[in-house]
Amino acid sequence: MRFFKRYFITGLLIWLPLVITVWVLMTLGRTLDSLVPSFLSPEVLFGVAIPGFELVLVLVVILLTGLFCANFIGRAILSRWESLLGRIPLVRSIYNSVKQVSDTVFAPNGQAFRQAILVQYPRQGAWTIGFLTGTPCDEIAGLLAGDFISVYVPTTPNPTSGFFLMMPRADVQVLDMSVETALKYVVSMGVVAPPALTPPPTVRPAPDAAGDALQ
């Protein structure tokens, strides 16, 4: 039994990451493929099946959309389109919520998830990794005594859920490790330790402006 258990676990550790990676990529590919209408399928356009054609088509459309909306005319059309969606009650709520989150997280100059930090949570003396997301809004900041920042503390092993906290800046330590490295550390529940840095990583207080920490 020891022989079986030892080599079975070894084989499982080799195959499991590969299988999950392939599954995620296949799921993503099928999701993107489903966005392409049937009249744009390679069978209709060329008469033959071309693996990955729908995926490439979706990526090209996304790229061209970004290029088009980067100029004045594109921005004007996008503004009209968003104004139209904003007049539809149910669609307005969903679209505006998703847009605010996506603009915050994926904007090139945004502040969300640009810096890994160390915070004491859920009690003093217990430390965990969080991510600097900005500062409290004006209304809340006016009710707080002192300098506060907004922090997202992810759960493990699923970092897509977590807790939004507003903490004193003095209680937060900014880490040198990248956001990607910190996420790996969180997802692995501390098993996959970040590689040693040269020089050794330093822990420093959060800077005076959230934007400075993200540069």
Count of separate structural domains:
2
Order of helices and strands: HHHHHEEHEEEHEH
Gyration radius over CA: 23 Å
Poorly predicted sequence stretches spanning 5 or more consecutive residues: none
Molecular shape: flat
- Mean pLDDT equals 81
* Structural class by sheet pairing and helices: alpha+beta
Number of helices: 8
**How far is the N terminus from the C terminus?**
54 Å
Strand order of the largest sheet: 4-3-2-1-5-6
Count of distinct strands:
6
Amount of helix? 40-55%
Task: Tell me the fraction of residues in β-strands, as a range.
Answer: 5-15%
In this structure, how is the largest beta sheet organized? 6 strands, antiparallel
What's the short version?
It is built from 8 helices and 6 strands. It has 215 residues and is an alpha+beta fold. The protein has a 6-stranded antiparallel sheet with strand order 4-3-2-1-5-6.
